[in-house]
Every structure is written in C-alpha cells, then in structure tokens.
Amino acid sequence: MLSDEVAAAAANQVAIVALESTIITHGMPAPDNVETARRVEAAVRANGATPATIAVVDGVARIGLTDEELDRLGQPGPELVKIGNQNLAASLYLGQTGGTTVAVTMKLAALADIKIFATGGIGGVHRGAQNSFDISGDLEELARTPVAVVSAGFKSILDVAKTTEYLETLGVPIVGYQTTTLPSFYSIESPHEVSLQLDSPESIGAYLHTHWSLYPACGAVIANPIPQHAAIPTNRIEAAIAQACVHADAEGISGKELTPFLLQWLVDATDGESLEANKELVFNNAKVAALIAQHLTSPCESQN
Ligand code: PSU
Ligand code: MN
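A: This is the predicted complex of the input protein with pseudouridine-5'-monophosphate.
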C-alpha cells in the first residue's frame, strides 16, 4: 500500500527513492534510529526526490510511512520483527509489524516500480560462514530483483572478500561512485576493486539502462564511500570488529540476531563513534540515490 505522498509522486512522475526499515527497528539504538530515519527522508527530499520508507505495519506492506508509523517502528520491543524473505508472508498473515531488510525492501520496491534504494551497508557473507553458512539473503535478492542499491559497500562486520566473490558468482555488478576501490562501510577503502567506477548520477543512470537491457531481473550495488570527516580508519575499527565477533561467538549469537548484535556491540565499544559514522554514510547514500533517481528511465523504456 502506497502512502499518499508516494502515490502522488508516482502519479506526477517525481523520482522516488526506497528506504529500508530494519536499520530503524534493529540497526540503531533509540532515539537515534527515528531521528536518523527522518533525516534520511529529508536528505532525499532536499535532493529532488520523494522518499518511500518501506516496512510492514499491522500485517500490511507499506511503501511510505506516516510520522506516527515511523515513531512506532523506532520503539524497541519484542513485537517488532526483522522481516526477511523467509518471514515476509508470515508477517502479513500474522498481522505483525516490523522492519524490512535490504532483501525484502528491494522486493517490495520492485513491486511498486521503484528502481533505486538507499541503505547503509548491504548484508553479505559473515565471517566464519564456512562453518555457520550465514550468508545474508540480501545477496540472492540482488541477483533476482532489478533495483539499484546505494550503500557504503558491505558492512565490514562481514567477510568482505567472500561477499565480493559471492556477488561475482551471482553476476551482480558493483559500481563505485567516484571510487575504484570498494568502500568498507565505516572506512573509505578496502583491498578490493569495484566492477567499474562512474563519477556522476547521469552516468550511473545511463549505465543502469544498459545493465537492465541485458539483465532485466538483476539488481546492482552502487558503492558510495563514507564522507571523509566521518570515516573510521580500517585498523582501528577492525580491532573492535574482531572483538565483537569473538563476543557473539561466546554468547552463541547467530542467525537474524547476529548483525544487530555486532552493530550494537561496536556502538558501545567505540563510544558512539561507529553510530555517528553509520548515520553519516546513510545520509550520503540517500543524497546520491536521490540524484541518480532523477536520471533513471522508466522501467518500460529500460527494457527495450
Ligand atoms: N545497513 C545499516 N544497518 C543495518 C542494515 C543495513 O547501516 O542494520 C540491515 C539491513 O536491513 C540488512 C540487514 O538487510 O542489516 C542484514 O541482516 P542479515 O545480515 O541478518 O541479513
Ligand atoms: Mn544471516
């Protein structure tokens, strides 16, 4: 169900940027989560597009939220579920309320004909996945859903090298926005290269047109580095991430709980520095997504 604002934007052919909500329900502590979500929406508007924050509210898939709904998603509590593809239908059937992951937000955005989406960092292959088999559903969704996801690379709590390999296997392109190096979430750089570097929203729009003419069902990652002033040097954050993983292991945290646990552990371990970095990179992704959104051709045109 579209909000009035999103329905009006669609009717008037105003560019729309989808936004996810697991970052609100499970990715950031309150009250920073709601405050950040509002500022992300404002960043999309300030750059000429309409934000569509996607979530499930009382068993209804919502494309665009009211202020009250956003507030409700930001109040932590056991009734707020983390909704991936495995439990999307269950959440609708049971009338639940919760945040949609990157995978489900892409899926719902595609159903609403929205081609671009901004988040912080996509999910991927977890460290130790050779034992746990923990690979985010975000990767498979990227391979089968034609939405471009603007992110600061993959969350560096992951095994970035394995995530890069996995996306290569799936054939999902990673476009570096003004960078040849894959950004690593809290840090500007990583040892990995992107598939190609593009320097303007126009060129990304034109590139996506070519991509979708060849692979009309495949997504793309637009990798946008965290702004310099908010970045945390790799060596500093890496030490904290290694400790976070040891603690998760010791406490037996796995499955859907792992990513939220690691992110919160880092917020505490860095005295909030990782939270500030996470906010700044999301604002930056929202801005770039809004600019690209204005250079996307309509889905029917792009499938010619
Ligand atoms: N980006 C952030 N914070 C987050 C997420 C992304 O800056 O919390 C969320 C997204 O919703 C993503 C999810 O889909 O983390 C990945 O969870 P998992 O590893 O369980 O698939
Ligand atoms: Mn997982």
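The chain has two domains: 1-114, 120-304. The chain has a mean pLDDT of 96.
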